[in-house]
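Q: I'm writing a short methods note and want an example of a predicted protein-small molecule complex. Could you take the sequence and the SMILES for zinc ion and return the bound structure as tokens? Please keep the output block clean; save any remarks for afterwards.
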Amino acid sequence: MIVLEMKAVVKPSQCAAIDDAIRTVQFIRNKALRLWMNAKREDRIDKYSLNKYCALLAKEFKFADELNSTARQASAERAWSAISRFYDNCKKGVKRKKVRNAAGYPKFQKNNRSVEYKHSGWKLSENRKKITFTDKKNIGTLKLKGTRDLNFYPLDQIKRVRIVRRADGYYVQFCINLDVREYAKPLEPSKKCVGLDVGLKIFYADSDGEMVETPKYYRQAEKRLNRLNRKKSKKFKGGQPQSNNYKKARKRYARKHLRVSRQRKGFVQREALRVIRSNDLVVYEDLNVKGMAKNSKLAKSINDAAWSIFRGWLEYFGYKYGKVIVAVAPHNTSQDCSSCGEKVPKSLSTRTHVCSHCGYAEDRDVNAAINILKKGLSTVGHTGTHAWGEIPSGLAGYVLPN
Ligand SMILES: [Zn+2]
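A: Understood, no commentary inside the block.
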């Protein structure tokens, strides 16, 4: 499944209609959740009872009836996925100290930003540059901007259509069911393999000694963002929180935030594609969240979030272009000498690896990257954790590069 996203050209009257649809989605989701919360065990509330409940809501509320029936269902499914996630966590026995509601008891949604249709309620124009929403929400026809060509994909494989509201406008997403491998131009084998180590100071180091910096704009933009955030907070006066100045400041902050996060995603995506293009085998550490959380400094680093997204893209592109991706257990990769294999203990602040046994000296992260590559080559390793060919859940909604 891939997600294509295009910006929509929206008239003011259409904004109101879309917002109304988005509000209705939230209403149905929360109503369904309430039904589950209030139910007794013998009621046996499941996915299907929530679906049936949608029809009841449509009879009772005019605005719910106006929304396409598949969009109503998709709203109830959102409630169900929150509920089933909670059940799963309970089954797995997720209990963490200090974390309230660790199992994730479902919450009512307040800031929904999207509405999702399935196979009905929308129609693409002949040239597929426009989409018309045909339910009684009267959204009408939206022109689609962007370089993506929907003609490239079979229409019956478009499984879902979503309208998403962002700080700078509305976007239409198409969830298309296809195997990306079939659409990929094969790459020439590079005859190279590489190990990657995520750095604290740098984005990553590879086993060839190359170090990729986290772009400076991260930090610069972050500073600017914080300033805007403070300005926003200053405008927030008790008693009249929704003043015009506050609203303006909030909008400015949201736009800037969106731009920064787009830059970040773009960087991570480009890097992943570059690594996959120039290597046939890529090895990285199987860093889990638990291990990360142990080191609070590490957890706070902005690299963390970027890294898990980076990894997701590595796996995605790896699948797409038929490259091998291996995740190895992250033990001792920074402590062992990559030349002789002896253990050379060092603290986090020691930036250079100098082996007292064989005399080998190398940057700390590069030494680790070589160890990671060796591990990947010597052990069977287990392949990436995400389902092959699926966009990792955290990446859904991102614009796919070619
Ligand atoms: Zn050594």
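A: Remarks, as requested: The chain has ten helices and 15 strands. Confidence is low (pLDDT under 50) at residues 396-402.
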